[in-house]
Structure formats: structure tokens, C-alpha cells
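Justification of computing resources. Each target in the renewal requires a structure prediction run like the one illustrated here; the chain below, 382 residues long, is used simply to show the kind of job we budget for.
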Amino acid sequence: MESEIMLDNKNVITMKLLHYFITEKNYNPIILQGVENEIWLENLDSDCEVIRIVSGYIHNNEQFDFDVFKTKRILKKIKKKTFSFHLNVMSIFLDLGDNVTKLGEDPKLMCINVKEENDINKNDLIKKIFPDLSKKMNYHEDGIELFVKITNDINKHNKEDASRLEKVFKTKKTYITYFLMAVNIIFYLTPLLLGQFDSVISSYCVHGPSIRAGEYYRLLSGIFLHGGTIHLLCNCYSLYIIGSQIESYLGKVKYIIVYLFSGLIGSLFSMSFGGSAASIGASGAIFGLMGALLYFGFYYRVYLGNVVKSQIIPLIVINLGLGFMLQGVDNFAHIGGLLGGFMITMALGIKDKSSTFEKVNGWIICTIFTAFVFYLAFIYSA
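Resulting C-alpha cells:
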């Protein structure tokens, strides 16, 4: 019985397509409830982000119209989860009736009719988007041997993919986060115990006129100073919660770069829009870590889509909102840090996700943005 199933033409084509899209093109299955006789695959880094392999029989135009309607509804849900405004979708139909005459009428959905393997080689759309598909479907094995090979290859690929994800999301030692917390605490307690608290704040805070006069060290020294115990504890707690995640996700070197760069951009924003007011605190750098987390969440939105919507974005919005409502809060530093963290993470890239092209573009954008902020701080606002 098993041999007969494996020799069925439709099942063979389905297996070969799955093997190609999963092992060659890094597509991942989308788990959908209540969907039968079709397989959904996604790769948000591909030009064609969603692939549907439909093995159910569609008899006429009415059934086909319902399939299109159902597909669009499911796509809306996928767009919401993945923060995608547009998804290119290719539906590969393996059992389309001769009475279906509306194939290809909807330009938003690419529909391919495949009854035999030769149909793949004849289809111009497939050859344009996946030019190697027809060649990759040629196997020396058949029957049970083909089933075993494809199953083993897919299982091996899935294990490797799971191993990569485990390395990314596995909780790691967060030495840098504890080090930064310690530095913030030392910079607060030392002058306080020596009776020089006000003097240190005055000499090392972010202060536009002083920085323009040549005291450039204030751009970074100010992000390690705090005005009181509550201020320090709030920032240390935020750093512990958010920083430990970023250190785990990005790695220690990228983490410290994001922290310092975000703090720098936050200080420059404070200079640009805060006038001659003094500013202190690590919150600009911490907002930069939120920006980094937002960028990381975008790349892993298939896995973190709900977390980004329910936790990361609300956290950013609430904290910015509080900054506008409460007196004495330098929200300009928060906004600058958030933008700086997002952009420097774009330049540094996400391991196994960001391409060289994306990172080069990130560095270009980050450089232009930094130059513009320096212009605002030292020339325009002077």
C-alpha cells in the first residue's frame, strides 16, 4: 500500500516540490488550522514570499473563486503577523479540473497549473522566479527510495534550522549587561560618597554649549550619570531586562556598539533640540536597545510577530508617551537613541539573516544619518 502511495504522480510531485522549496530555498511550513489538501510555505527573504502547494481537486470556476477568496483571507492574517504590506504568492495547483478557465485572472495571485512534471519546465512564470526548479526535480531514486531520500533531507534541513534558531534564542551569559550596570552604579555612588556629586554632574553632563566649546567627552560621559537613586534603579532595571536580551541575540561586541552609539546619538539629539538644558542618564542608550530589539524582531517576525505587537512596540510607545507627559525627562535623547539603535543594528546586521547588500546599505544610511545629526547639533542649533 505504501509503495502505491509513493508511486502516485501527485504525491511524487508534492514531495519533490517540498524538497526543493525547503532544502534549496529555505522555505518554512506555515501551520494553519482547518486547511486541508494544501501546504503553505514562507520565506520572507525571497522575492516570492509565500508558496502554496494545492493537492485538492478543484472542479470548476466557482470552486476556484472560493479558493482565491480563502487564500486572500489567510494572507491577511499572515500579513498582520509578519508586518508585511505586500506578499507575493504562488499557488501551485496539482489537481485542477478542465472546467477551470479563470486561472491567472487575478494579478495579485500567481496561479500555476501542474499536472505533470513537464508542466513546470513549460511555465514561464516558474522559470522566471525559480529557474532551477525543473532541474532540481530530477532524481535518480524513485518509489520508496525517493520518499526516504526526500524525508531524510527535509528532516536534516529542519534539524539544522532548529539548531540555528536554538543558538539565537538560547539564553546566554550576559557579562556586558552586568558590566554596564556596574559602571552606572559606580559613576553614581563614587561622587556621592566623596561629596562631589553636584560637581561631577556639572562637569560631565550632556550640555550643548559646553560640548560645542570643546568638551566632547560629555557626549558619552553624560549617559553614565544619574540624578538620583530612583533614576538609577529604573535605568538599571530596564538595562537588565532589555540589555540581557540584546546581548543574547546580537552578541557582546555588537551589543556594546549599539549601546554606545545609541547613547551618542541620544546626546546629539539632546544638544540639537534641548537648547542649553543639561541632560544625564542611560535612557537614550536603553531606547537604542529597544530600537535594536525592534529591528531584530522584524527579521524574526515569523517567530516574534506577536511579541513585537504585544510587548516591544507598546513598551516603546508607552515610554515615549510618559516622556512627553512628565517634566524633567529628556525625550529628545530617547528618540535619538531609539533611531540610533535601530540604524546601527541595520548596519551591523543580524546573523544568518542580513545579507551583505543590506548591511552595506545600513552603513550608508547610518553614516548619512550620523552626519546629519552632527550638523544639527554643532552647526544648525549652535
